[in-house]
Amino acid sequence: MGCREADPVRFELDGAILFSADLSPVAEHLKGYVGEIEAGPLQKGVPDDEDGPHVERMEPAGQELSLVIVSGRYVRAHEALLRLRKELSARMGKEHRIGVRGVRIDRYTISFSVPEAPDHPVRVPFATSLDFEGDTAVMTLDDVSEDFLSRNYVDRLVALVREKVDAQRYEGKEEFWEQIWTSTPREMPYQEDPTEDMARRGWVQQGPGKGRWFFRPQAAAVIRAMERIALEEVLRPLGFQEVISSSLVPFEVWLKTGHLKGVANEIYYFSEPATRSEEAWEELRDLVKVTREVPRDKLVGLLDAPRAGMTYAQCPNIYWSFQKRTVADEDLPILVFDRTANSYRYESGGRHGIERVDEFHRIEPVYIGTVDQLVELREGLIERYKHVFNELLELEWRMAWVSPFYLQQAGMAGGGEDEEATAADERREGTIDFEAYLPYRGTREESEWLEFQNLSILGDIYTTAFNIKAQRHELVSGCSGIGLERWTAVFLSQKGLDPAGWPEGFKRFLPELPRGFTFH
Amino acid sequence: MGCREADPVRFELDGAILFSADLSPVAEHLKGYVGEIEAGPLQKGVPDDEDGPHVERMEPAGQELSLVIVSGRYVRAHEALLRLRKELSARMGKEHRIGVRGVRIDRYTISFSVPEAPDHPVRVPFATSLDFEGDTAVMTLDDVSEDFLSRNYVDRLVALVREKVDAQRYEGKEEFWEQIWTSTPREMPYQEDPTEDMARRGWVQQGPGKGRWFFRPQAAAVIRAMERIALEEVLRPLGFQEVISSSLVPFEVWLKTGHLKGVANEIYYFSEPATRSEEAWEELRDLVKVTREVPRDKLVGLLDAPRAGMTYAQCPNIYWSFQKRTVADEDLPILVFDRTANSYRYESGGRHGIERVDEFHRIEPVYIGTVDQLVELREGLIERYKHVFNELLELEWRMAWVSPFYLQQAGMAGGGEDEEATAADERREGTIDFEAYLPYRGTREESEWLEFQNLSILGDIYTTAFNIKAQRHELVSGCSGIGLERWTAVFLSQKGLDPAGWPEGFKRFLPELPRGFTFH
């Protein structure tokens, strides 16, 4: 076995077809019809060496024909039930003037293989029960509607069970990480946490709200200098064009990118007013005027439930803008970036300084082209990033291939047994993390370095999801988020807050710090 | 009369003081005490020529002492009740070992003057009834809690009734508008709606979502050129320093600025996850995976009700950053701007093109200083704006003093009967709108010109609300929102989309349009 498509699977359906009249007078005819249909139409599409669906039991009772149908993967039991209905409807109508009123599935039991029995219980929605017998999962569904079947929920439930069993196998295993390159060590004259230092000097102020910062002129100037460096030293030389994208992402867009499956619990959601009518809002406003508090329960009643969230990464809306488009070959590779949509992630307990925050500012370059074009672009991007981090910012940093372990297992992240064969230039897809040493966190060896930049080629997942095509070529895509707070945190952690100690390459982009304000 | 503070007002309270024992044995003593207290402590603070509170009726019954107290504005009936409790508690405890358990207000009737009887019904929260007898309002409150009184809700309800009566008087009256300056007419070679034209050419794409736009490279380049013009030709020459502010505004901040009273029905609200726990979110994610839809009802259950909204204008968070600060005199005037927080307004039916949208991009200069400093700054800003609009963008536009009619009536907007006395240079506070002619809307005379810029000095409302002080001076503040989509809409409406027709002054900031993309 091994390949899932050939894994054994068994569908057992317990249900009924409902007719417009009592079936007892025609019971024998009915049995004959079912026998004919089972041998004929129900087997259509079943390969020669596979078993088709089988009607294990049938029992007319009143106006109902109770049925038990069992199948393998070909013409699954619920498809067999619908075919049976169609065929019976024709015969019963013509011969006996009895119509079909509908079908009912009381219980649907699906048995399928999983890689191994899970250690912890697995739950999935809709299933009445889910049990494991060795490497076989047995899932039962009660009272299944036709709608449920026609929307293909059954296949997705099977996929979800397998995904959850897989996730348990890889739980606790380390993510793939393989160093590609490292800079030489540099002297680190500064050991403080730069955010704390900036807060003391009045360069930044925490808030308003958790995980958000107000950057006063000095800190704002450093961040804007980082932005100019990214624009002038990385993106413009490579031919990237700027777009301005909305910060708001409708669920339809995230359903295509998968964000709502992956990071639903980290998203900031928003609600528009359900109405703008002055009258509807009068009471809330009056309460605010009288109590000087916001009645949050009343407010919720005036809002539409969320249909969208705030940017988690800018790429989904950029892909949306190319949705169902066919791009001119001479425009390939498409190179764009957005630096206008601000990003939001609910970090909760993980917040720290300006480097791990709920609201941050990123430039997101997105590229769409052939694999060869993007592999070449990646080399160009790495060269520009090296120029910036080595010559302008003079950082101590390194690059590593990274991929979640399960992706690596699934063969999606390149790599393999032979480490020599996984050198950067041989990889076609995958993610490179750029990590920098933060002296305030401890020694180089023992402290966690900060991921301050990444670079991905993501294959065709987004070009397929958004149906983005070229005239002749197969398209893949990728992105390379530039986190301005992260660049700033790394730079200040290594170089400190005294401009006298900053490298000349950086000072070209910020010759003088603004003076800010003095408070008494 | 005339001045509201002296307007007649009458408070009538029907309630009780609750004791720890039956009062019948001490009824006579009680009457004596009440008489003493009414004549003594209850009159403390009442001016000689005014009436103090009066106990109109008292009736011991079981453990309760029922009371009717009537007062004018001095020592209002509910204050009298609390004083009475305190004094009785001392006497009854000492003399009769009977304690006070609490007070109860069954009905509180407040009569006060309004400018005139309203034409339409007026509703306010908490009031059981609100009636008007000529220019007197009679409001009754039932079952009033001590908390309600101590939070000063009564005064705010009176103010709210008066505000609503006032609003009816000014309903339908035109807002104040007085032209200060107008450019010479210019030739208008282009008559199209530039947004429609841009959409046809692929410069912009509507969405994702209503009232939001995706700006492709050509349009993004025009918007960024406008930003550079504002920065280099207006803000930097005047000494403005950049700050980076959060796009998210907690309700506490808006309660200080008044936005939740004024524009609650136009705000985009957001919700953070109530928890980040993977387990709590598992079912929602599973449902998304199986159904490829977002179960919005389940989602709402996983979110915290909104405590904040998205930027309506950037100034509130900027004022917050100076909250409770004392600014050094040599830093005055404080000149800052934010261009990072994106703005959101629920426009609903009012949306049009890129000029009236739900999401837009503004530079917000905020200035805090003495009145003289800000009046001088205003002249400097007007001079720079004139330079930009006349010499660089070559627009046809005008400036006008504007103020909502009721502010003008309340004497807050300068102006008056003598039009000659209202010239710009004599005004200390108020708002100037910059309006431009949009040829696609019709003739100069009959079409509505677009407000594409404003400039306000707002007095001390925000410096007071946020307690912002200088060492020696009284501070006022103002702002001057620069809407980049508005500048762009005005420029393209008058000059068209062909760069050959654009003025040289603008082309200095955008020598060449990016090529964008070709779709097949």
How would you sum up this structure, described in words?
The structure is a homodimer of 520-residue chains. With 520 residues, chain A is α+β, with helices and mostly antiparallel strands. In chain A, 33% of the residues lie in helices and 25% in strands. The first copy, chain A, contains 16 helices and 24 strands. The first copy, chain A, has helices at residues 27-39, 77-96, 146-150, 153-170, 194-201, 217-235, 251-257, 259-262, 278-291, 296-302, 315-321, 371-392, 405-409, 461-465, 484-495, 504-507; strands at residues 9-19, 54-61, 64-71, 100-113, 129-133, 136-144, 176-182, 204-206, 213-215, 241-243, 248-250, 269-271, 308-310, 326-327, 334-338, 343-344, 359-360, 362-369, 397-403, 430-436, 450-457, 469-470, 476-479, 482-483. In chain A, the strands form six sheets. In chain A, strands 7, 10, 15, 18, 19, 20, 21, 23 and 24 form a nine-stranded mixed β-sheet that branches. In chain A, helix 1 crosses helix 2 and helix 6 (217-235) crosses helix 12 (371-392). The longest helix of chain A is centred in the C-terminal third of the chain and has 22 residues, at 371-392. Chain A is elongated. The termini of chain A are far apart. Mean pLDDT of chain A is 92; it is low at 1-5 and 408-425. Chains A and B meet through helix 4, strand 9, helix 6, strand 10 and strand 11 of A and helix 4, strand 9, helix 6, strand 10 and strand 11 of B.
